[in-house]
Amino acid sequence: MSSSTPEQVTVAVLGRTRGNRGELTASCLSSRPERFASLTSVILNGGDAALEDKSFEIEKVWDHGGTLIFKFAGVDSINDAEKLRGAEVRVPKAERVQLEEGEFFHSDLVGCEVRDRLSGRVIGQVTGWEEYGGPALLQIDEGRLLIPFVKAICVEILPEERLIRVDLPDGLEAVNDR
User: Spelled out in words, what is the top-level CATH class assigned to the domain 106-176?
Assistant: First the structure.
């Protein structure tokens, strides 16, 4: 999957077709799936049709047993829908949901420099995320180091300054070097 552009953010990825009316399942990448109810149009990118930032009007989007279902205007058959399979569903950054205090978009933290809070030593740069059911892990320098994204470790998060200050537990860097 490609990453979002500076102007857009990916909120879902289209999956298999559903039914025979052009509906598609989607994997939600938002922690707030209720956000999809208010969308009227999205930008699709990639997928089987190799779309490049093509706008699609949404007829309807709903949750079906924990899976999002999209129905786009003009996509009325299995064949039409199949062409969209694998496409990223994007919205302009300005349309992202409002976050609560202390919440952050992953995309805003990728690229941030990570520094030791006390010494100022540069530890690396956030290059991605890993999630396995516990706290998310900041991937530093393409996975050279994984840092739990928790308040006790990531003590100062300043996306506007492209900086995260951390208090690493003793031995964390050594464990990751093995």
Answer: mainly beta
Q: Which residues contact 8 (CB under 8 A, 6 or more apart)?
A: 43, 45, 53, 90, 91, 92, 93
- The vertex-107 CA angle with 105 and 109, nearest 5°, equals 80
Count of residues for the chain? Answer: 178
Rounded to whole angstroms, how far apart are CA atoms 20 and 23? 7
Residue 5 has what pLDDT?
56
Q: Report the relative pairing of strands 8-18 and 41-46 from DSSP bridges.
A: unpaired
- Domains of the chain, by residue range, sit at 8-95, 106-176
- Domain over 8-95 is classified CATH 3.40.50.410: no
pTM of the predicted structure, to 2 decimals? 0.67
pLDDT in tens, 132-153: 878 889 999 988 899 999 999 9
